[in-house]
Amino acid sequence: MAFIKNHTTADLRNVSFLVQHLQDKISFEEFYLSSLATRLLNEESIGMEMENSAIGIYKSVLYRPSHSHSLFVSRIQRMFKEKFLLSKSIMESYNNRVLIDRVILGIMRPFDLNVDILSAVYCRVVSPHSMCKVPSFAMNAFNDFNEFYSKYKTKKTLKLLPQFGTAELEVTRNSQRETTEQSCDGEHSTTEIERVERKTKVVVSTYEMFVLDLFNSNDSLTGQMILKETMIPEDSLLVSLDNLVDHHKLLIKNPDCKEIKLSDTFYVKEDIL
């Protein structure tokens, strides 16, 4: 169950009333925790005020000293603490170390990193059956943070979840600009095609970033080749390719039709200015 912006406290109380009378509360709680974890990791929380209202209402109907479901509310509270307090504190410490490394030791990192950390005990998400291939630059970023975290929290280990998260990329594309010069008498004209390097910033999903990275060393790739190189789950890959073609306008495909297939061939889109 996800909240939308026009939900009111009255709406939440109606939901809590239904929850109170569910026969299978365990299934609801497991679904809610999984949905909440996905929302938090995808940055889809609508704000602490509404989330706290939900916690307060669920606590009033479910939280009893001898209630078997009181752990449900405690888990929600713990997840919010990890997302909005603990993760923020850890990132502040990590960024301080990055600053010291840069200023004092001259160590430069080719990335800016923001990490959310949720305990697997409370955050139950459905992971793909197999891990996709993570590009070396992304794995280096993860390993750098993991090395720091292992010293910060010695008894905990991190698991990378590439199905979540976003990346802000600087995309460099070669564009063509046509310029026409006309003679003074107007009888002659010449047209020149100038190639222009254009840089733009775009925010993509982690999977989409993995796909785009392949085009740093390839002019064209079929969907099957991308699937083999990235090992992204097929359904997720098709969604990522569709976004890169139709939404971000970074790739074009052949054949030029709406449906995305693994047999299609994909190219980086060249701008015509």
From TrEMBL:
Short name of one Pfam family for this protein? Answer: Cullin_AB
- Which superkingdom? Eukaryota
Signal peptide range in chain numbering: none
Its GO biological process annotations read:
ubiquitin-dependent protein catabolic process
The annotated region (Disordered) lies at 172-191
Q: Name one GO molecular function term.
A: ubiquitin protein ligase binding
**All residue ranges annotated as the Cullin family profile domain in the record:** 12-245
**Family matches, as InterPro entries:** Cullin, Cullin-like_AB, Cullin_homology, Cullin_homology_sf, Cullin_N
Bias (Basic and acidic residues) ranges = 175-191
What Gene3D superfamilies does the annotation carry? Cullin Repeats, Cullin, Chain C, Domain 2
The family assignment reads: Belongs to the cullin family.
What protein am I looking at?
Cullin-3-like
Source organism per UniProt = Aphis craccivora
